[in-house]
Amino acid sequence: MSSIAENFTLVRQQIHSAAADAQRSEASVQLLAVSKTRHADELRQAWQTGQRAFGENYLQESLDKIEVLKDLDIEWHFIGPIQSNKTRPIAENFDWVHSVDRFKIAQRLSDQRSPAQPPLNICLQINISREDSKAGCLPEEAEELLNQTLQLPNIRVRGLMAIPKSADTEAEQRKPLTEMNQLLSNLNKSLTDTQQLDTLSMGMSGDMAIAIQEGATIVRVGTALFGPRNYKQ
Ligand SMILES: *Cc1c(COP(=O)(O)O)cnc(C)c1O
Fold first, then answer.
1. pLDDT of amino acid 229
2. pLDDT tens-digit profile of 111-143?
3. pLDDT at 230 over 80
4. Structure confidence at residue 231 (pLDDT)
5. 202 in ligand 1 pocket by Cβ < 6 Å?
């Protein structure tokens, strides 16, 4: 077995036991393989283990891979920062966007998504640790952004995403994840049945198990699957 295949087996086992510990079904947690900086051949190896959902951060790099891997049935997730003049290729080529943090971006994605395609699934990115330098809207801004975004025709708001600040203790790691779960429940109280948000995109290689205990439905895992990244952008 290749080391990528071994890593996928290991991470899937970790997800399985974290879900069991949290008394959740394994099917309620989706593994998103974060493949930024990885070569298309590595994604192909991952696909051969059964992986279908891949997350990318850098637009040009991801478009190149989407082209090279177009023979595979991959669900593509955009998880990186979005410049407003770069929304069109994202709207046209991806199935999910996790990093929507302002209305202008949501509006452009909706305008540029073809009505002939299924609606683009989006998550609102929340700056849950309130870091000055970080993307995401503040938790208290989420409701307004959500209400505006729900009006748009060609996107479907699925839930919330966060990249919490790294922390030294388990208790500190857990706090922002708990807050995300509470924010999602609060927002859902004012939504109709068909609008309910079903997605919490949180948890990475280092905090995957805690995130699953705190209700993550998509964990975004890179290093634990592919090893240390090839380069930094
Ligand atoms: C790189 C990245 C990840 C994966 O992080 P790892 O620590 O390598 O698992 C998850 N989410 C986002 C938004 C990322 O940019």
1. 80
2. 999 999 999 999 999 999 999 988 999 999 999
3. no
4. 64
5. no
Query: Is 60 exceeded by the pLDDT of residue 232?
Result: no
- From the CB of 205, is ligand 1 less than 6 Å away? yes
HSE-CB of 58 using CA atoms within 13 angstroms? 11
Q: Tell me, using a 6 A CB cutoff, whether residue 32 lines ligand 1.
A: no
How far, in Å, CA of 71 to CA of 53, rounded? 15
CA 99–ligand 1 middle distance (angstroms): 12
In 90-188, where do the E strands start and end? Answer: 96-100, 120-125, 155-161
> In testing the pocket of ligand 1, which one of 10, 15, 61, 79 has its CB within 8 Å of the most ligand atoms?
79
Amino acid (1-letter code) at residue 3: S
181: Cβ contacts below 8 Å, ≥ 6 apart: 200, 214, 215
**pLDDT score of 19 more than 80:** yes
Taking CA atoms only, the protein residue closest to ligand 1 atom 6 is: 222
Evaluated on CA atoms 177, 121, 65, 82, the torsion sign reads negative
Place of tokens 């090279």: 68
CA–centroid distance, residue 105 to ligand 1 (Å) = 21
Say which DSSP state 168 is in.
Answer: S
Task: Give yes or no for residue 221 CB within 6 A of ligand 1.
Answer: yes
111 Cα to the center of ligand 1, angstroms: 28
Burial of 95 (0-12, 13-18, 19+ CB in 10 A): middle
